[in-house]
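Intended use. Records such as the Large ribosomal subunit protein mL60 entry shown here are meant for training and evaluating sequence-to-structure methods. They are not intended to support clinical decisions.
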Amino acid sequence: MFGAFRATSVASGGLLWKTPWKLSVTRKANARSRLKKVDAVIEAVRASGVQCGSLERALELPKEHEMPAKDKYTVFSATAKGYRKGIHKVPKWTRLTLRTNPKGF
């Protein structure tokens, strides 16, 4: 129980989630970079002349430079204090389009 071979929280309880409470500068830069890359792909598809419903919906989304920092790094959460939580707390947040939030939040 005690000493060199004592049980650690990982060994006794399984996977230990260590999510920081705020995004680091590097993770924020990577998030902005992903948003810019998505904007570039949407623009390339638009310029190619292809027409589809998903492209029309994508063109309605705000571009990275049009978004306030609050929308880039946080998302609406009905359960969170202040109704916002860090974007990195959302499962698979790097693969989702989280650019729009309810009005007033």
